[in-house]
Amino acid sequence: MSGIPYVTKSWNPAVGCKECSPGCAHCWAKRMAQRQRIEWGQITTKPERLDQPLHWRKPQIVAVGFMSDIALWPDEFLDKVFAVMALTPQHTYVLLTKRPERMRAYLVSLAADVQDWPLPVEKGSERIRTATVIQSSTWPLPNIWLGVSVENQQAADERIPILLETPAAHRWVSAEPLLGAVDLHSFLPCGDPVCEEELTFLDWIVVGGESGPHSRPMLPYWLAQVVLDCEPAGVKVYCKQDSGPRPGMQGRLPDALWAVKQLPGGWA
Q: Domains of the chain: which residue ranges?
């Protein structure tokens, strides 16, 4: 099970992270890691967890590495993670990073190797194995949703364009913790068939305030504006929570806004 309401499983083959922006200040995963006595400031891979999805009989919606940032994992470890995701097309994998430039570089490299078979020996056995597995699948892998976390307009303007340049079948944004108003218009479908054929856009948005004992306030109209921006673009939105001491609080959100919990097609 998972404590994240829009997924059914959490898969953490690595743990630990490093702060990189204002959204990290009161990180829930850091608090959880401290309770579990995990060294937060360094990345610790857990190879024994890599095969977990292979044992899940029913299709799952899987949060990947939410106790870390996948962009901080070594290439050779990411190769193994992507091989497992390619081997389990019945599951849907939800990935999230604050470092999209690193994921863009990794996935562009992986895409080139998948298309450039056979690989030279110096690429390493794990990259060769991953490329071999993916070659029998569709690339980009259709069961992966690649996302970025944004907390304000600056983060959105810096991270989302890089996400949209990254090889991915589906792209999403977690606007949480929302620390300021965010205008997403330029990243959403515009209704022009010519424009939409040439450009890529976001496919899904999760939005919510910060939770925890030191939560910073979110103004409800910031969240409402995200919903209003997405409706005419046909992009689904999941309203996760108001800011407050506990996760999942409706708080000050009106019932109509709180009821907006849209999932991508095929998820539920």
A: 9-258
